[in-house]
Design brief:
With about 325 residues, the protein is an alpha/beta fold. Helices cover about 25% and strands about 20% of the residues.
Length: about 325
């Protein structure tokens, strides 16, 4: 099978596909004023056939993992159809979703039946009042019930994403650790990233994941090996805990050296990096099945433009105004 390789010999096995820009939460670090369409409507997002063509093209090029993102992907009425369509290619071994958990309790069993194999749920606080303050939604108990429902539906592990913020949740590490002690949850602390709209929040709340890493090491947690289609998290294990801790630290030295993922936006642009470029249009090659070879050629050729690293250290956030821009 052909393999996507860039100019720096990095191999790409992982596609993050945004299927909508719409989100019903108003997280302080992402969409504090709520979702604003800016001229984009539901009809502007990739159709089911377009999703099939683009994911199957990536699968033909060696992609073995797809993550469905948004906005909030479960807001699409055809979400189960999207899952089944992507999973219909035999090369896609892992199909995951990143969700705010809003519809998890109601729908997670149907998602699993449609072919979903992995879940990431965003939970930035284990305190209901603080959760409400961060997300703009009083839905903490519903999200927690959704995680329980995921286990009931047959998921053996659930990943939980927590955006690390100074004096908000970094001070509650022990509470998080107690939560995962008897639960097969991989809790992933994600460093707050600077975006065009979020510079002030970044200055006030950014804290390095290194502070958490040092604490984990001191407490006897050990770093696990990383698989070729795994995301960017450094995953730590402790023999006394059923759960795991992941750290995603985009400001760490050589973070980009192990990059193995590409992104396609909800309107069909290939993004080589979360930050810094306008994207390569693919949508004109998603209209008909006979365009598959041309589509694969454009994807492969575009990959040669991928840069060696992002420029977040220099404060360059590119066109990314907020973290919902191309699927978080």
């Amino acid at each position: 099978m052909p393999q996507l390789i860039d100019a720096f010999a990095r191999k790409f096995y992982y596609l993050r596909l945004s299927i909508t820009d719409v989100c019903n939460f108003r997280c302080t670090y992402c969409l504090p004023d709520g979702y604003r369409p800016n001229g984009v409507s539901n009809k502007s997002f990739l159709s089911l056939d377009e999703i099939r063509r683009v994911t199957h093209a990536f699968a033909d090029l060696g992609t073995e993992k797809v993550r469905l993102t948004g906005g909030e992907p479960s807001l699409r009425r055809d979400f189960c159809d999207v899952i089944a369509t992507v999973k219909s290619h035999s090369a896609i071994k892992t199909l995951a979703v990143t969700t705010n958990g809003y519809r998890l309790a109601r729908d997670v069993a149907a998602w699993r039946a449609a072919g979903l194999t992995g879940l990431n749920v965003s939970v930035d606080s284990l305190d209901a009042r603080q959760f409400h303050a961060i997300t703009g939604q009083d839905k903490f108990r519903e999200v927690m019930a959704g995680i329980d429902a995921a286990f009931d539906a047959g998921f053996s592990k659930v990943k939980v994403n927590t955006v690390l913020m100074r004096n908000v949740n970094d001070i509650h590490l022990n509470t998080f650790l107690e939560w995962i002690k008897t639960r097969p949850i991989q809790l992933r602390f994600i460093e707050l990233m600077e975006t065009g709209d979020g510079s002030q929040l970044f200055q006030n709340r950014h804290v390095s994941g290194e502070t958490i890493r040092r604490k984990l090491i001191d407490m006897g947690w050990t770093l696990q090996a990383r698989g070729r289609s795994d995301g960017p998290a450094l995953v730590f294990h402790h023999q006394d805990y059923l759960g795991e801790i992941g750290l995603i630290m985009p400001y760490a030295k050589d973070f980009c050296a192990s990059c193995n993922r590409l992104r396609v936006s909800a309107i069909g642009n290939l993004h080589l990096c979360l930050f810094g470029e306008d994207g390569i249009p693919l949508r004109d090659l998603l209209a008909e099945d006979h365009q598959l070879d041309a589509l694969k050629t454009r994807i492969s050729g575009g990959l040669q433009l991928k840069k060696k690293t992002h420029f977040l250290h220099q404060g360059e956030t590119g066109i990314t105004r907020n973290l919902s821009y191309i699927g978080g």
